[in-house]
Amino acid sequence: MGGQLHVICNGAGLKKVPKVSDQTLLVSLQRNSFPVLAPNTFKEMKGVVSLHLQHSQIKEIASGAFRGLNKLIYLYLSNNEISTLKQGAFDELSELTYLYMDHNKMVELPKGIFSPLINLFVLQLSNNRIHELKPGTFAGAKDLRWLYLSNNEITSMQPGSLDEVENLAIFHLEGNQLSSYPVAAMSKLRVVEDLKLSHNPLKSLPDFAFQSFGRYMESLFMDNMALEKISDKAFTGVTTLKSAHIENNRLSILPKNFPYGTLENLTLSNNPWHCSCQLTPLRRWLESSRARPDAVCATPSQYKGQQVRDTAAFRTCKAPSKKPRRVSRH
């Protein structure tokens, strides 16, 4: 195969990884059969930058499996049956920037498994069976910016589990089993712009939930969560939110400090809204918004079924008066 920059052997019935020349930059071995990636499997592929191993029935990655791939930037391991990652599985992948391991069978992530990946930017772990995040899980991956953990079975994110990845900008956690918001773990994050929590059985959102990254958060997904209560100070520090999705919950009111001022897009449908003066700020936002989201009163009974935007429920509500602040003199 001398001199070829790209080696494509997809669906070739391979059971063994082929040899390639030193000049090869991309190797695609999708839809073959490599149940175990043994140590030094790829050690001759010194120049390879992109390695594609999707749909290859991989179950186990041994320690040192990728040894020698010192220039590898893209590694695709999606749609396999990986349940075992041996300590040292990713040794020597110091240039790796994009790692895709979604649609596998991983239940836990060994502590420090990603520590050689000092340049990792994107980690895709969606659609596995991961149960919890523990301290040290992401040790070493300090440059990680995009982390996808959607559709796992995460019930717990221990305090300290995100300490090493404080620079996450995109963090997707939808479709897990979180029954309480992991304030301690999340408080280490500094610059999250896009947060997805949808489809978790979270009934309440606590004070200061987003405070550590509130100046950066632009997009928040909290739909389909059975959410009943958002604490009064949940949105403290949130100053740049443009898009919020809270439909299909059990919310009747929104907290006073809900960040209407910056919002451009807000989805609200299928919540039992209580149309009283406490919801006046929402009514005002709906009146001034170009978007026309669906929001229907559930209570009081005389307004049931009416759109929050149109109902007469707010007729007697006073506009908030801005009182001049008294200067205290001592």
Automatic annotation (TrEMBL):
Origin: domain of life: Eukaryota
SMART domains membership: LRR_TYP (SM00369), LRRCT (SM00082)
SUPFAM superfamilies reported in the protein's UniProt record: L domain-like (SSF52058)
Compartments where located: Secreted, Extracellular space, Extracellular matrix
InterPro entries, alphabetized: Cys-rich_flank_reg_C, Leu-rich_rpt, Leu-rich_rpt_typical-subtyp, LRR_5, LRR_dom_sf
Keyword Disulfide bond: yes
Domain LRRCT span(s) in chain numbering: 271-318
Keywords, in A-Z order: Disulfide bond, Extracellular matrix, Glycoprotein, Leucine-rich repeat, Repeat, Secreted, Signal
Major site of localization recorded for this protein: secreted
Pfam families: LRR_5, LRR_8
Protein family according to the UniProt entry: Belongs to the small leucine-rich proteoglycan (SLRP) family. SLRP class IV subfamily.
Protein name: LRRCT domain-containing protein
Lineage: Eukaryota, Metazoa, Chordata, Craniata, Vertebrata
